[in-house]
Amino acid sequence: MAIGLIGTPATVTRVSSSTTKVTSTTPSFPVSPSYLTATVMVVAGGGGAGMNHACGAGGGGARLIENFDVTPFHGTTPITIGGGGSGAPTAGGPPNGITFTGVKGSNSSAFGYTATGGGRGAYGDGTPADGGAGGGGVGDGNEGGYSPPEGADGGADAKTWGNAGGGGGGESGQNGDPPSGTDSIGSVIGGDGGDGTNYGPYFPGITFGPSNNGYVAGGGGGSGHQTPQPGQGTGGNGGGGDAVYPGNGQNGETNTGGGAGSNGSGPTGSGGSGGSGLVAVKLNPVFAASNVWSLKKVFQEIKANNWGLPS
After folding, report:
1. What span, in angstroms and rounded, lies between the C-alpha atoms of 155 and 243?
2. Coil, helix or strand for 97?
3. How distant, in Å, are the alpha carbons of 176, 227, 275 from that of 195?
4. pLDDT over 90 at 303, yes or no
5. Is residue 2 located within the same domain as residue 109?
6. Most exposed residue of 31, 131, 156, 221, measured as fewest CB within 10 angstroms of its CB?
7. Residue 175 and residue 39 share a domain
8. At a CB cut-off of 8 Å and minimum separation 6, what does 105 contact?
9. Domain limits for position 291
10. Are residues 172 and 248 in the same domain?
């Protein structure tokens, strides 16, 4: 222990940062009293997609909160990971007798901050599809009303077939694409889901997103009516699922908040389910030097690698 200029003990406190990826609901996440501030990413579950040439679902809302006061959470704090919404079920009768829309994703929360579940993929019938990022067709993003926004809008539809892509989540999320034309039988071609947001650089030491690329909350692709690939919309970067025909729409990727891709009609097949959400926590490094220090003593501490913020 060093002696300060006025004769009382002078101490250095240095605490290295701690970064954690949380992939399932954790009732008691530990927060050491040594930490003073934190940065957190909260990603909600992606929406479930529609079926039978319907819309792709929106990515889960995604929020980044930097350098907030973490002292109220010393000890433990709950973290909730939202699940993805389920996709529309397999067709079994006339459209008026079946639920052709998917289910909205569930919210995630951590440290008092909430992200909103992704909007469901609708059938193109005007069914609301708002969410953290909007589902294709009529889905508005940023349902929580946050600044910066937690997600973008779903693509606009040209007709009642559905077909638009879901929006991407996060402040850099992109709108879903509308249907883009016609195929050989005159049906519109599904719109792509919007890209999500890359939060990877804020959390060194952990990886997340498709192929660990740091992107989360991509929107799901919208489908064309009985149109083989490439007539089906692709999912946005950040775990968004592709629309598929024939067969089931692709699920959003687990622990990305990706919106699901829709199903392109036919006698069988259902909309994909949304990907579950994610929380990333960085407890920021701490440096404190008590009392008053001489320049000589500061120089000695620097030489000993005992001064300034640790990594």
Report:
1. 14
2. helix
3. 8, 23, 15
4. no
5. no
6. 156
7. yes
8. 44, 45, 46, 47, 48, 57, 58, 60, 82, 83, 84, 85, 117, 118, 131, 132, 257, 259, 274, 277
9. 1-16+285-311
10. yes
